[in-house]
Write a structure and sequence with these properties.
eight-stranded mixed β-sheet, Saccharopine dehydrogenase NADP binding domain-containing protein, seven-stranded parallel β-sheet, signal, 15 helices
Length: about 425
């Protein structure tokens, strides 16, 4: 790999594209190796927003792939297949039923698990079935407990000779790879050690990603936040520690709050950064106020109960859909790295549509697996055995298709509208 970080078009490593390109068929096609060119890829949750956008992105990126849409609703499945075209089919599958899963996996080469939410799930049934049927695996998990439970199957995946990536969506996922590249550049190019890594995320409304994202957000409010400060694990109240973060052109400054996200622990352990935290914020501003109020007024036990949270989703969903029509679905993620020599760099990714961005990101991970980037075992995106260092540039380029801004390894002042952050609060 070239010594400078991610040369996309110039040494500046800055890629900017129009969102229009992502919504048209103007996508750079991928020529897969002969042995995987006609692979069958099962997308579980393929009739939902995340799975559906993943299936769509995959079919555009690799038209020769055979896309199998997995779900429970045949009517929605037929509609999705009609959209995807002749190289697709629908299969009815219940992810909580071992026999149903193994039957669906019996003749596919890769399974993409996008049937969330992952919070409060007690078993990794899809991963276990993938290991039993020797099927490559990818999930878009955004839950710390689930992700590390999946990692416990590493030995079994090695024995079965299957590659598997957990937390392989947009965030976590692409954000992890961005962080890994910042850390790699700091150590290899600047000869310095990372001290603090901060993940900051923003979406407008629900990001157009449907009830699953809403359920995930509510469930996360019931989880104590785990962060790391100078190597020590600390626990904090969810949706506290507000920072006003500048996401640059097209997004601006946004308030973000602490949440318990898996990339905090995985980055701390894999990248060996002593201080790590993650924050999330949304718009309009009153949604943030509502999330704070829920954290303060509702017992954590209530917010950890999936059936109760599902009830909340049913109540709030019509209102959220209405507000989404006004707020749009812009998404941005910023990763900040501070090092021992006071060197500060960032990575920034912004897109007009989260539903498109998450599809592009997940498809980029799926293609990397099919290209042979992933070794047997269960890996996080920032581990080189999951996404090989030399494959990161291409993965990020594919994930950033249609982005309004994508910047790697630059000082904050080159991106921000005002380089000083406001309202620092808890600084971890």
């Amino acid at each position: 790999m070239a010594p400078s970080l991610l040369h996309f078009n110039t040494a500046a490593a800055v890629a900017v594209a129009s969102a229009k390109a992502a919504e048209n068929d103007n996508v750079s096609r991928v020529q897969l190796p002969d042995k995987t060119r006609n692979s069958r890829v099962l997308v579980l949750g393929g009739t939902g927003r995340v799975g559906g956008s993943t299936a769509t992105a995959l079919s555009k990126l690799c038209p020769d792939l055979r896309i199998v849409v997995g779900g429970r609703n045949r009517e929605k499945g037929a509609a999705m297949v009609a959209t995807l075209g002749k190289n697709s089919e629908f299969v009815e599958v219940n992810i909580n039923n071992k026999d149903s899963l193994e039957a669906a996996l019996s003749d596919v080469d890769l399974v993409v698990h996008a049937a969330g939410p992952f919070q409060q799930s007690q078993k990794c049934t899809v991963l276990e079935a993938a290991i039993e049927t020797q099927t490559a695996y990818l999930d878009v998990c955004d839950d710390t407990n689930y992700a590390f439970r999946a990692k416990s199957f590493k030995g079994r995946a090695v024995d079965a000779n299957i590659p598997a990536i957990t937390t392989g969506g947009v965030y976590p996922g692409v954000s992890n790879v961005m962080a890994a590249e910042l850390v790699r550049a700091a150590r290899s190019e600047s000869k310095t050690e990372p001290e603090r890594l901060r993940f900051s995320y923003y979406t407008a409304g629900s990001g157009g990603a449907g009830p699953t994202i809403l359920a995930t957000s509510f469930l996360l409010l019931g989880e104590e936040v785990v962060a790391y400060n100078k190597g020590q694990k600390i626990k904090l109240k969810p949706f506290t520690g507000m920072l006003n973060v500048d996401f640059g052109k097209g997004i601006g400054k946004r308030d973000v709050y602490l949440l318990n996200l898996p990339e905090v622990r995985s980055a701390h352990e894999v990248l060996e950064v002593p201080t790590v935290s993650a924050r999330f914020g949304t718009a309009p501003f009153f949604w943030n106020w509502g999330m704070e109020a829920m954290t303060n007024l509702l017992p954590a036990e209530f917010l950890r109960d999936r059936s109760k949270v599902q009830q909340l989703v049913e109540w709030f969903d019509p209102l959220v859909r209405a507000v989404d029509g006004i707020a749009g679905e812009r998404v941005s993620m910023r990763v900040d790295l501070e090092c021992t020599n006071e060197r500060s760099t960032l990575a920034l990714f912004s897109h007009r549509r989260l539903s498109v961005a998450v599809g592009n990101a997940t498809a980029a991970f799926a293609v990397a697996i099919l290209e042979g980037s992933t070794q047997p075992g269960v890996w996080f995106p920032e581990e080189p055995e999951g996404i090989a260092v030399e494959a990161r540039e291409e993965l990020l380029k594919r994930a950033a298709e249609g982005a309004i801004a994508f910047v790697m390894n630059k000082p904050p002042w080159m991106v921000e509208t005002d380089p000083k952050e406001l309202g620092l609060g808890i600084y971890v």
